[in-house]
User: Which sequence fits this backbone?
């Protein structure tokens, strides 16, 4: 949520000369995304977003993300489309950073999603999974179950200082999840970070999905589990069953879940919550001095885990077969 | 340069319903302006800037600023035009802050102005002074000569820690400027903060002036002196005489300076530099913990003052009569 890199008018004008998108009319640094610098660009040909990738995005992952957005946009998914420069290349460099221009998507993120938003999200998520089916690249999910133990080790000693008993609760979750993590579920490209910030609506209609920088190859149902966590709980841990039911039924209207996926949903939801608890906890304990970004509260996910620990069946999340 | 106040989609949609500018398509927090929260707004009727005024802008000054922008825009000056709501009122309230929507201006700020930019600026500045001639409101310049002694007192004890000898140099400048500050020069509405950030160009053409939140009633030539400081020096204090000549001649192409103004130019330039030195010094010494904004270097103006102390005539700034 900050402009980490200043870009001068001269540097930007030179950079834009390499693209066939007209001349610069305006650009503004925008508070979008946590880890990159983003500018709203207005040129004689339209509106765009310019992203400069800061250090937390690995440059070697960028071709996966950019090719994926191009692939999905070509299949009709409403997502930012990378603009290729005059040499046919989408990935450029500006002010010493990898830099990309993508098409601008209209739409607004909802802070308090209603069941209709969740139903639209479910449809779009399944559409993404289908549109990615013939995408030729692969990227492992480096924040899946194998990463949780090492992440926990970084935070373990300080965890009880954040919330009494937190270390023990995480240890118990790991002991359940590691041996029982589902294998062999239907898999492919997943978004893996489809929080409300990354989904746009115009009025009640879903207008687009953004921020593919956690996208990877993993189980489709795990992506649904992430969305159930991100869209269907209050910060205090209260689960909204009506939102969950709408999200799942929207998803199944496009891509019905298999029996294995339905059976795995509670453990996937619990794992997804643990993943966000752990990454948030590590960030919370490692705020650099002078940070421009307020870290997100890890305990929101500790409270969601209370619900997940008691959930036994997909029906507990609103699935009604 | 930060979003100090988060605005939810629901709060913004409710706020916009009070205006006749269509429905919301998109909004982004932008890193524009140092002291307020600004959003780029896109609606079905076009593009706008939404500003929420944070604590450093005095609410009682807002009618002056808003009426002035409306007055100037009506006289053809390219500046943001406040949008009145359905009740005919431009000043609203959103998230507990005074809030205003203005028209969006295309254009880009130049980081390294060339003489042609300075000439265009001079013309626009004189145009602003002429367009403001029949503006009915008045606002004293609370950062003029009378304020400098009190500002200096806040910073005096720590000044030499910022740069050895700084306190003595400022004291000597005050001793020269206070008794010799020009009175009775042609006066009216001035912008008083026309730094490069606040002037937009499209290609080589000046496309607009923004950020009227220091505008006040004062000598026109003082506004020109502020621009000479802001546009015609390097950070190391080097004066670009070609830029100064272009700025002054551009100004005089629209509004010729009087003899008194020409004679006063060196002392006005020295005063303008001292004003920015002092406000930057106070900010520099009072950065709040957790500040999102990097304070600007006061010593840039100490170095400009070295030039001003040696300047005797308008010709030293490029004026050629």
Assistant:
């Amino acid at each position: 949520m900050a402009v980490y890199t200043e870009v001068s008018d001269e540097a930007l004008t030179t950079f834009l000369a390499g693209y066939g998108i007209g001349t610069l009319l305006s650009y503004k640094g925008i508070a979008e995304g946590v880890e990159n610098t983003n500018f709203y660009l207005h040129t004689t040909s339209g509106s765009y977003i310019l992203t400069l990738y800061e250090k937390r995005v690995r440059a070697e992952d960028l071709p996966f993300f950019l090719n994926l957005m191009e692939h999905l946009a070509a299949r009709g998914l409403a997502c930012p489309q990378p603009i290729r420069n005059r040499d046919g290349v989408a990935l450029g460099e500006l002010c010493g950073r990898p830099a990309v221009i993508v098409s601008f998507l209209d739409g607004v993120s909802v802070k308090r999603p209603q069941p209709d938003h969740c139903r639209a999200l479910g449809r779009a998520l399944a559409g993404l999974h289908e549109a990615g089916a013939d995408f030729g690249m692969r990227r492992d999910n480096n924040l899946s179950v194998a990463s949780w133990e090492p992440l926990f080790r970084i935070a373990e000693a300080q965890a009880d200082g954040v919330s009494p008993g937190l270390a023990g609760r995480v240890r118990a979750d790991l002991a359940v999840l590691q041996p029982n993590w589902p294998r062999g579920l239907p898999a492919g490209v997943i978004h893996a970070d489809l929080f409300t910030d990354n989904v746009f609506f115009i009025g009640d209609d879903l207008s687009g999905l953004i921020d593919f920088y956690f996208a990877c190859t993993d189980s489709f149902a795990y992506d649904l589990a992430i969305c159930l966590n991100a869209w269907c709980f209050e910060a205090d841990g209260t689960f909204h069953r009506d939102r969950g039911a709408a999200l799942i039924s929207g998803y199944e209207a496009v891509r019905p879940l298999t029996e294995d996926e339905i059976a795995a949903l509670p453990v996937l939801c619990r794992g997804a919550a643990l993943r966000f608890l752990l990454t948030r906890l590590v960030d919370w304990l490692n705020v650099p001095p002078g940070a421009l970004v307020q870290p997100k509260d890890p305990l929101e996910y500790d409270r969601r885990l209370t619900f997940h620990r008691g959930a036994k069946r997909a029906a507990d999340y609103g699935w009604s077969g």
User: Anything to note?
Assistant: Chain A has a mean pLDDT of 94. Chain A has two domains: 9-102, 115-317. Strands of chain A lie at 24-30, 37-43, 46-52, 92-94, 97-103, 187-190, 199-202, 205-209, 216-219. Chain A touches chain B through 34 residues (CB under 8 Å).
